[in-house]
Amino acid sequence: MTALELWLSRSIPACLLLQSLVLIMVLILPSSGMCPRGCNCQRDLHLHGLNVSCSQSRLKEIPPSLPVDTVLLRLDHNQIGSVPDQAFHGLWLLRELNLSYNTVETLGDGAFTGIEATLQVLDLSHNRITSVHKDAFSRLKARVIMDDNPWHCDCSLQQALGGMAHNHETTTRVLCRSSELRDQEGRPFLAVATDLCNITKRTTDYAMLVTMFCWFAMVIAYVVYYVRQNQEDARRHLEYLKSLPSKPKKPDEADDISTVV
Ligand SMILES: *[C@@H]1O[C@H](CO)[C@@H](O)[C@H](O)[C@H]1NC(C)=O
């Protein structure tokens, strides 16, 4: 009995302490979300949400659980290499996203899914993006800053920029590092008047034509070779037949000659 009493007297306070800890965690966690490690979260009284600043935090990827009431997210000056699909899903209030000065090379097709309606500014400058999916920015209403990326100017970039008519001022600053067309390197993308989508189509068409022509030429060459070979054989066969002694015909021939004479 005394042993049980002793055990109870020790375990009941421990249980209560654990319960209250769990209660506190449950109350705190979902209300605002925890501020991610390496970030600084401050309540913005004008925008009624959180300013989350994770600048210069040596982040290699976008923090997985960002507070749901984030309105301003600064991720600049990190080592983030890609923006996966739905990276900001659930941030219903996000207005400004700064991803400048990172090492972003790829943007998922749905990288900005869920924040299209609220996002007003998206800074992707000073990254390593060469190309984007043609619909990457199509549903964004935000002003997208895309300067200082090693853009490869091709059909999909032309389509992506084409869907951003509202962004004309910022798209003029997109420079081609490399391009489908030779003379465009280093030039602003919008100065390129050519329809790059038609060009790629035309080059594939030409490639197709050349391949077909080659096949056709090979078939013709083979047919010619085959016919020649057979002709040669036939001639040789004929000569052989002619050279055979045809004795039973001799008298006829003689008759003929005599009649002619
Ligand atoms: C994003 O952050 C960079 C670096 O701090 C800054 O220069 C730039 O102005 C910011 N972009 C926007 C749209 O505020």
Structure characterization notes:
It is built from 5 helices and 10 strands, in the order H-E-E-E-E-E-E-E-E-E-H-H-E-H-H. The chain has a domain at 28-194: Ribonuclease Inhibitor (Leucine-rich repeat, LRR (right-handed beta-alpha superhelix)). It starts with a helix and ends with a helix. Helix 2 (155-162) packs antiparallel against helix 4. It has helices at 2-32, 155-162, 168-171, 196-243, 250-260; strands at 40-44, 49-53, 70-74, 82-83, 96-98, 106-107, 121-123, 143-145, 151-153, 176-179. 2-acetamido-2-deoxy-beta-D-glucopyranose (NAG) binds at residues 76, 98, 100-101, 121, 123, 145.
Task: Looking at this protein, list some descriptive labels.
single chain; 261 residues; alpha/beta; Leucine-rich repeat, LRR (right-handed beta-alpha superhelix); two-stranded parallel ribbon; 10 strands; elongated; disordered C terminus; binds 2-acetamido-2-deoxy-beta-D-glucopyranose
Count of strand segments = 10
Major beta sheet summary: 6 strands, mixed
Straight-line distance between termini? 155 Å
What is the typical, i.e. mean, pLDDT?
A: 82
Order of helices and strands: HEEEEEEEEEHHEHH
Q: What is the CATH topology classification name of the domain at 28-194?
A: Leucine-rich repeat, LRR (right-handed beta-alpha superhelix)
How many helices? The count is: 5
Bound molecules: 2-acetamido-2-deoxy-beta-D-glucopyranose
Give the name of the CATH superfamily of the domain at 28-194.
Answer: Ribonuclease Inhibitor
Beta-strand residue percentage: 5-15%
The stretches of 5 or more residues where confidence is low (pLDDT under 50) are 26-32, 257-261
Radius of gyration: 40 Å
